[in-house]
Amino acid sequence: MQPSSVPSRWRVLVIVLFWTYTLLNTYFVLTPVLGAAPPMAYILVAVLLGGFSLSHAIYMLGPRHALSFFALSAAISLAFEGVGVATGVIYGPYHYTDHLGPKLFGVPLVVPMAWFMVIYPSYALANYLVDGRVVSEPRPDPVRLIGLAALSAMLMTAWDLAVDPQMVMYGHWTWHVNGPFFGIPARNFVGWLATTLTVYLTYRFLEARWPPRGLWRQGERTFERLPLFIYGMLALGYPVGYSLLGRPELAVVAFFAMGTPCLIALLQVTPNTVAT
Q1: Cα(228)–Cα(230) distance, rounded to whole angstroms?
Q2: What is the residue extent of each domain of the chain?
Q3: What is the pLDDT of the chain when averaged over all its residues?
Q4: Which of 2, 98, 108, 145 has most Cβ atoms within 10 angstroms of its Cβ?
């Protein structure tokens, strides 16, 4: 294979994963009409969307940075989740059921991939909101790095406001307490912020010290913004799904929590930045 053909072939892989996940996500949104999805389908979501995030990250950040980002995300999320399941300290008392497959330290093996599948789009969206680019220019400014990490963590936690009630509803994990947010304890969202902030801070300081060198080229604006489309797809999918389930209150939460940053990003797409 010629070196020049690597970016093109990699782009094809990313696009195939993007559209395959899009079809699966459409099915999930329509499950109230089509019937409940089997537990294996949720594992497939993590594999497809996680695979998209990792492959797109490899293209945009380069293999070393992307794999480092994924490894940090997987290790940190597994550590936090393992402690959380064992003690209830981080997220509140809960346990995973057997729906998501084999477990390590009480945590399904697919869960670290599930964290990264939205950690990367949230990272890309934060960069775009601040700098108008999916991959920001790394700067050795601690205040900026902490701010970007915090924004990324908040975007990621906004997703949990939408996904956690659904996953409890479908029996993928069970809370041992009746919390104030649709049965979920408020501590859970503090734990999500702490987990994702740790991931983002670790990676962003690494990125600032060793700037990424991806495969992408100027002018690939649509391809560059695919993670933003993923986040936007989730921002629209959860409200529609919850509305079909007869849960308008959850639809409103999901729409505003995830839809607001998506709208801000959309307003940044000017005629000068329209994809070629």
Answers
A1: 5
A2: 5-273
A3: 87
A4: 108
